[in-house]
Amino acid sequence: MKKFLITLMMALAPMTASAAGGAGVPLDSIDVDLTDKASLQRGMQTFVNRCMGCHEAGYQRFERAAQDLEMPNELVEQYLIFDPNTKIGDHMKSAMAKEDAAGWFGAPPPDLTLESRLRGSDWVYTYLRSFYKDENRPWGVNNAVFPDVGMPNVLEDLQGKVVNYCTPEELAHGGSEEIDPLTGKTMGGCLKVQEAGSQTPEEFDQTIYDLVNFMTYMGEPSRLESERLGTKVLIFLAILFVFAFALKKEFWKDVH
Ligand code: HEC
């Protein structure tokens, strides 16, 4: 039954995904590449280290990811599974109790297995790069695509402290013409790093790219599978063609 529901959710998800952010903010687009195993591996590393303290990916097994991303099980066990009670065949569950999380953050951190499918990869990519300083919020940050979000900017040490130079209206519509776009890439130049983090803006974009690439993989692991299958089918058809052609020649030999 659970499996059926997930399948149903996956089938219906694209209908609910919208191109724009929650507040109608224009989104930066991302060109995901599920064949880039190195990127997916880096993304999984970031996800496990930086997201799973609060979120889980309850429909994704470590072992399946290891297999799809071409990582040896031993390495995954050694570097990506922190809980001694978790086994490689287990789902990627969070150690945090849901009731605690709801109490701390106002809203519980949702399961992220299908997030990129529900919101769209562009949305997730933009969301993770759109936190900015806002002293009126409990965590001292707000988010351009998810106003008044309950999540802190957990990657601030990498990205740095980001300041919004636009009015709320400008921010909601993707920036202002008066702001030099060269000084900042996010939200039409509204959001700029004021205090540098440990990564340059380019490195940070790459980190988020890898992370969203991995989240996109989690949302549709079957796409990897069908890409692999597709190649096999083409090879099979090519071989079949050779035989069919030889057979045809054989049949028609006596007719001519
Ligand atoms: C300290 C806890 C915490 C960590 C760590 C954390 N998040 Fe969150 N996240 C939350 C909470 C709480 C919410 C719910 C916010 C709300 O609904 O207001 C949330 C919401 C989200 C959402 C939006 C969900 C929606 O409503 O569609 C996304 C996407 C997300 N987180 C991604 C991530 C990613 C990716 C990471 C790792 C880089 C991460 N989060 C790390 C607490 C956390």
UniProtKB/TrEMBL annotation:
Keyword Metal-binding carried by entry: yes
Pfam family name, one: Cytochrom_C1
Statement: the UniProt record of this protein carries the keyword Iron: yes
Domain of life: Bacteria
Transmembrane segments: 229-247
Alphabetical keyword list: Heme, Iron, Membrane, Metal-binding, Signal, Transmembrane, Transmembrane helix
Leader peptide range in chain numbering: 1-19
InterPro entries (UniProt xref): Cyt_c1
Name by which UniProt lists this protein: Cytochrome c1
Taxonomic lineage: Bacteria, Pseudomonadati, Pseudomonadota, Gammaproteobacteria, Oceanospirillales
